[in-house]
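Title: Request for sanity check on Homoserine O-succinyltransferase prediction

Description:
We are preparing a figure and want to confirm that the structure record we downloaded matches what your pipeline produces today. Could someone re-run it with the sequence below and paste the raw structure tokens into this thread? We only need the token string, no images.
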Amino acid sequence: MVNLLLVSLRYGETAPAVAAAEYRDICESTGLSQEQTSHLVIDSTNVELPDLANFDGVIVGGSSLNITNETWDEWQLHIHRQLEILTEADIPVFLICFGASWLAHHVGGTVGHSHAETSGKTVVQLTHDAAKDVLARHLPQSFMSLTGHTEAVENLPAADNITILADGPTCPVQLIRVGDSTWASQFHAEMDAVAMKNRMDFFYDYGYFSPEDYLDIVNSLPSIDTKWSNELLAIFVRYCATRAATS
């Protein structure tokens, strides 16, 4: 049986509720049961990662943090250290949204505001390199997902261990892999219509969408097919299980 660690990067009074919703979203999209998952909420500098040898893979949810902030407080610096530990460990890791910004910055790329996307639908298009990726090769050439971010990856250094697996018409870096076993999606691979509305309610005034557009966005969500976006996370889970069984 696969054993996954789900990590939530949440802070403040809403942290428990947002983390619980995130846990629901990841389990719903992957089919993971409570017996197959451990949930860690890093809501202070006192919370650190457990022994990763006890897990077959790690999924890291999004965060209201931004790489482009002028200064980083102690909690954000602590988050960066924990993510560095994850990506340097010999374990499959899938990072969502903020994780893409952090990973790009960590490997020497740039993050900015030129490709922000409002909450709602986004189109993800696989690159040529996706055909050789253990996760992305199972996906259709183009599919829809849900998103909402005020910053995005703008450039990545040219290196053999950094691969852009998907882009899109509104965001040029949608899915990346660093090394052999670390992936990051700019889009929310864990979200469905229920998840998107819940997240919009939590972050109503964070600048992810205009309040005047709230009802239009929410009403459009049920028509957005997130099947393949969610399947990406499910494929990651299956990859973790196979890797653990053969190692």
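Thanks, this matches our download. The first strand starts at residue 4 and ends at 8.
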